Structures are given as structure tokens and as C-alpha cells.
Amino acid sequence: MLTVRYSHTLACGADEFWRVFFDPDYNRRLFREILLYPAYEIVEQHETDLEIRRKVAAQPPVVIPSLFRKLVAGGLSYVEDGKFDKRERTWHWTLASGAFGPRVHYAGTIEARPAVNGSCERLVEATITVRAPAFTGLFERAARDLFHEAMEASARYVEQWLAMR
Fold first, then answer.
1. pLDDT reported for residue 56
2. Which whole-number Å values give the CA distances from 70 to 30, 64, 95, 137, 146, in the listed order?
């Protein structure tokens, strides 16, 4: 099991961050045009007075070494299932791997806390669990690197998105 944490100061308030985070157009552009996912679809998203739930089906742009291609013949797709608790102001999510089923599991949280001069601090924590004896370290590092890339790119793109609006 591997836990990663990220902190980014963004040039927007926490409320604005959450508006962008749940904007379907922002997400489609981030994942398809910036992160170059071959597949990204918001399967469902609905809101109540207490929460926002969203389910996403996606496939990251991963080059699979030939040694592992038979194991992941359908690609490295996943389904992310998340819930934003409006009182807690935290996004809780899990990610289920299409190719590896219960052998690979992600779970985490995202918070946006007010910071100085109208900015906010986005705090991300994720736990990556791989149950593949002989390959655990390799898969955890690859998963961590892919996640890191997405977190850095999304932090940059939030500000680009806001500047375009």
C-alpha cells in the first residue's frame, strides 16, 4: 500500500474551485485534451442538498510493456465513484480498475481550504493498493506516477480554465 499527498495553492477561492471541479465541460477537456485520455465519460452526476455524487468511466493514456499486454488486454480502464459532502466540503472517491479488478484499488480525498488573497489550497490524499505478488512495487510506482502527472496537470489547468472564463 502506498499513500501520496499533494498540496497546490490555486488562484481561486474554494467555492470557485468546487464549481470548476464539478463542471462537466472542464472535466471533459482536462481528461481528453490535456491528459489525453482515449476514453473519459461522466456516467452519472447528481446533486442533493447534502451531497454531489459522480461516477466516471475512463481510460488513461498508458503505454503497457509487452510483458503485461496479455494481462490488460482491455486496457487500463477504471471507474471512479465519488461523493462530495457539502457540510464537510470534502470529495471522497474510490477507483475500481477494469483490468485488475480487486487487485488494484485507489481511494482518496480532495479538500479545498481558503488561503491568502482569495486563493485556496487544494489538498489531495490517495492510497494505492496493489495485490499482485512479484509486481506490487512496480504497479504501485506506475500508478503513483500516473496519479502525480494528473494532479500536477489539473492544478495548472484549473487556473487556465478560470482565465478563459
1. 97
2. 29, 10, 22, 19, 21
Read off the C-alpha cell for 142: 506506475
Distances, alpha carbon 89 to alpha carbons 5, 14, 39, 79, in Å: 18, 9, 28, 22
Of 94, 67, 54, nearest in space to 78 by CA: 94
The pLDDT value given to residue 94: 96
E-strand spans in the chain? Answer: 2-10, 39-47, 51-59, 78-85, 90-97, 101-114, 120-130
pLDDT tens, position by position, 129-152: 888 777 777 777 877 888 888 889
Name the helix (H) or strand (E) containing 137: helix 136-164
Domains identified in the chain and CATH numbers: 18-164 (3.30.530.20)
**Cell numbers given for 130:** 496493489
pLDDT reported for residue 61: 85
Percent of the chain with pLDDT over 70: 92
d(CA 6, CA 27): 19
